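Bench notes, afternoon.
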Amino acid sequence: MNNQEDAIGKVIVDRAVKVHRELGPGLFERVYEAALTYELNAAGLTVERQVAIPVAYRGVSLEEGFRADMLINDLVIIELKSVEEVSGVHHKQIQTYLKLAKKRLGYIINFGQSLMKSGIVRVVNGLPDDMSWR
């Protein structure tokens, strides 16, 4: 992981906590997406929302692939949730996004948790995970 990805990750976590404190749990994902976009832009980061991640099949790029909720500075993928608990399928989803998009760092951010720290999962693609941000 390079320092830029780690620095972006720290801003993401900080701003997600800020949004959660302000809005609380239980709203629709799109509300948190808009609020987090506002916060990350205010922090000077570039945010793309609902980014298409194509799937290559037999040498053809299928645009009907996936959509990542957020791509930050073309380096970090964020998947937003507003559910009681993050499940194994959510982990597989972001791991697939990271692999297909050739990105190394992603976060599952679940605004459905009472305590935001419990709702943030850092996911790496092919690298040892460093949980020092917690």
